[in-house]
Amino acid sequence: MDRSFLKDKKRIVVKIGTSTITHTSTGNLNLGKLERLVRMLTDIRNQDKEVVVVSSGAIGAGRKALGIKERPKTLSVKQACAAVGQARLMMVYQKLCSEYNQTAAQVLLTKDTMVNDSSRYNAQNTFDELLRLGAIPIVNENDTVSTSEIPYVDSFGDNDRLSAIVAALIGADLLILLSDIDGLYTDDPRSNPDARFISLVPEISQKYLNMGKETSGSSVGTGGMSAKLAAARIATDSGADMVIANGDQIDVIMDIMSGKEKGTLFLAHPNLDFDLMHYLNNEY
Ligand code: GLU
User: Fold this and answer.
1) For residue 196, what is the DSSP state?
2) The predicted structure's pLDDT at residue 81
3) Ligand 1, pocket residues at CB < 6 Å
4) Could you tell me where the beta strands, DSSP code E, fall in the chain?
5) What pLDDT band is residue 121 in, cutting at 50, 70 and 90?
6) Is the pLDDT score of 30 beyond 60?
7) Ligand 1 atom nearest to 141, measured from its CA
8) pTM (predicted TM-score)
9) What is the CA radius of gyration of the chain?
10) From the alpha carbon of 159, which atom of ligand 1 is closest?
11) How many CB atoms lie within 10 A of CB 121?
12) Which atom of ligand 1 is nearest to the CA of 162?
C-alpha cells in the first residue's frame, strides 16, 4: 500500500520503549540514540508539525543510578527507581532539547487522573497549550504513585497503552510505536521460524488479536505484542493511524513519516462512538 499519506500527518505521538533508548549490554542510557531522537523531533517541529513523546526508561535509569543489579520486583523498589530515574531521564531530554533550541515539558499521568473527568480535561488542555506554545511534551506514567500491582485496573500497565490513550486524548493523527521487534508477525518470530511479517492491518479483527503475545521478550521492556495490539485498537478507533516498528535504527521515525514501508501500519477506522472511558475501563 502506498504510504505517502503519512507525510501529511500533523499531530504525532512517538512511543519509545526502554529497550530502544538503553544499551542492551549494560542497561545504561544510549545517549547517541537519544541525541538522534531529539534531532528528529526537532526536524518534525521544523516542518510545522506537533510531536509528543511517550518515553519509558525511568525505572531502568533509576535502577542504574541506585546501583541495583536485578530488575526490581517489589512495587516500592520500582517506585523508588522511577522517582530517581524520571528526573535523570528528563535531565537528558532537556539538555538535548536545549541544544536544538527546543523546549521539553514533562507530563506524568496516572490512570486515576485519566478516569476522573475534570483531571482528564485538565490534562487535555495542558497538552493543547504546550503544543500551541511549541513545546515537546515528554510523557510517562507517574510510576512513583501508580500502584501498578494490578496492571490495567489501577494503572495503565504499560506505555504502549498509555501512548495510545495519549494519542486519543489529544486527537493525534499518527502514533509511532518503537520497540525491539519489526512489527506484527503471524506468530512470535523468536520461537516460530515460519512466522510471517504483516505489513498492513486494515482493521483489527480477532484474527490479528490472536497473533498477540503476552511476553515482551526483552529484559527491560514491559508490553508484549498483545499490549501493542490493544494500543492499536485504541489508537485506530480514536482516528489515528499507527505504525509499530523496530527502534533499533532510530531514524526509522523519519522513514515512516516520509511514507516508506517500514514496520506494520494499522489503518485508522474512526469509530463515531469512540469513548476513551470505555478503553480506560478495559471494556473492549
Ligand atoms: N513507565 C515505565 C518506565 O518508565 C515503563 C513502562 C513501559 O515501558 O511500558 O520505566
Assistant:
1) -
2) 95
3) 17-18, 56-60, 140-141, 143, 158-159, 221-223
4) 11-16, 50-55, 104-109, 136-141, 174-179, 184-185, 197-198, 200-201, 241-246, 264-266
5) very high
6) yes
7) 1
8) 0.94
9) 17
10) 9
11) 11
12) 9
